[in-house]
Amino acid sequence: MVYTGKKQLTALGLAILLGFSLMTSGCATKSTAQSDEALSRAEAAASRAEAAANRAEAAAEKAERIFEKKMKK
């Protein structure tokens, strides 16, 4: 479980870093529309990363339950 937590934090951290880099990569010279688009893409990437981390955590929990069930037999 600790490992999946680390994976989730890593995925979320990477998404935040990606979002920050997209927001700051030349926003001073871009129009507001382009900045808003970059922010939107960063938010979408963060959302996808969070969803993937949640799926990975759910799969790990399911595998752990199956393993514990088999060990009890």
From TrEMBL:
InterPro entries registered for this protein in UniProt: Oprl
Coiled coil region boundaries: 39-73
Superkingdom of the source species: Bacteria
Supply the alphabetized keyword list. Answer: Coiled coil, Signal
Record's signal peptide: 1-30
What PROSITE patterns would the database entry show?
PROKAR_LIPOPROTEIN
Output this protein's name. Lipoprotein
Q: Native species of this protein?
A: Desulfopila aestuarii DSM 18488
